[in-house]
Amino acid sequence: MNPMNIKEVQLLLKQLKIQPRKFFGQNFLTDSNIVKKIISISELSKTDTILEIGPGLGAITVELVEIAKKIYAIEIDRRLCSYLEDKFSIYDNIEILHGDILKIQIPDHNKVVSNIPYKVTGPILDRIFFRINSPIGILIIEKSISDRIFISGDYKNFSRISINVNTFMEPTSQTNISRKSFYPVPKIALSLIKLIPKDQINSFFSERRALEFFLSFITGIMPYKNKNIVNAINLFLKTQKDIQYTKEEVNSILHMNNYDNKKVFDFEIHEYIEICKLFYS
């Protein structure tokens, strides 16, 4: 059985004695048209190794196993793992892994195709995509986060996620999805997005320590995006034990490198990287 409407999902969950858990972010996909759209933009092939985060009842998984070379489906709910293991027992190209995506060792993969748990979207993006050789991502996420990823020149709407995603990935597709396509119906608006790894990644990120510093740097200055860049960097550096600069020195370094003391949100993506380099030790 592949439940694809609310009544079928409710019936199956009742049979499995599973009550959707808000703590796990469980909103089960009930619309076959959405699944078709996901599969279409995923452009799957027999060479793909797929990571699926939170497969739930397998609404997407059932399509993935028919096309992809390998699927690693990571599910935090042990009860659903048992159901999925039984459901896909006849397939030899899928592994159901029980665990937390933020803690489990993640197998190698080249695409992520998932209706991810919405409340941990940021940490999932951090762990999966902010690196060299990122996978392609086809994800259902919160629309407000999607809107920050697909920047339109209004940098006042920038966030840490805006910068980090657009540093490593190329957002290529964004489709709004009805909340009624899920059970339980989520309270937030949703979007289906596609992210492609950038062809050229700044060589600065080839060193793991530099990559980690950049992510820390962006996390540190973006709470002050309405402040001037000197003030924002100065506040960030105060949290760094091994980097000592006065506010005047920060201003001087930026000035010598032809950066004006503008609001943080007034800079462009590539400028954040170059400014970060100036303070990397």
Task: Compose a concise summary of this entry.
The protein is of the alpha/beta class and about 280 residues long. The protein has helices at about 5-15, 30-40, 60-65, 80-85, 120-130, 145-150, 160-170, 210-220, 230-235, 245-255, 270-280; strands at about 30, 50-55, 70-75, 95-100, 110-115, 135-140, 170-175, 180-185, 190-195.
Summary keywords:
Helicase, Ruva Protein, domain 3; 281 residues; 11 helices; 9 strands; 2 domains; alpha/beta; two-stranded antiparallel sheet; seven-stranded mixed β-sheet
What does this protein look like?
This protein has 281 residues and is α/β, with parallel strands linked by helices. The protein folds into two domains: 6-200, Rossmann fold, CATH 3.40.50.150; 204-278, Orthogonal Bundle (Helicase, Ruva Protein, domain 3), CATH 1.10.8.100. The chain has eleven helices and nine strands. It has helices at residues 6-15, 32-42, 61-64, 78-87, 121-129, 143-149, 160-168, 208-221, 229-237, 247-256, 269-278, and strands at residues 28-29, 49-53, 70-75, 94-98, 111-115, 136-142, 169-177, 182-183, 190-197. Strands 4-3-2-5-6-9-7 form a seven-stranded mixed β-sheet. α5 runs parallel beside α7 (160-168), α8 (208-221) crosses α11 and α9 (229-237) packs across α10. The longest helix is centred in the C-terminal third of the chain and has 14 residues, at 208-221.
CATH-derived architecture of the largest domain: 3-Layer(aba) Sandwich
CATH topology title of the largest domain:
Rossmann fold
Query: What's the CATH H-level superfamily name of the largest domain?
Result: Vaccinia Virus protein VP39
Radius of gyration: 21 Å
Question: Uncertain regions: pLDDT < 50 for 5+ in a row?
Answer: none
Helix content: 25-40%
Average of pLDDT? 94
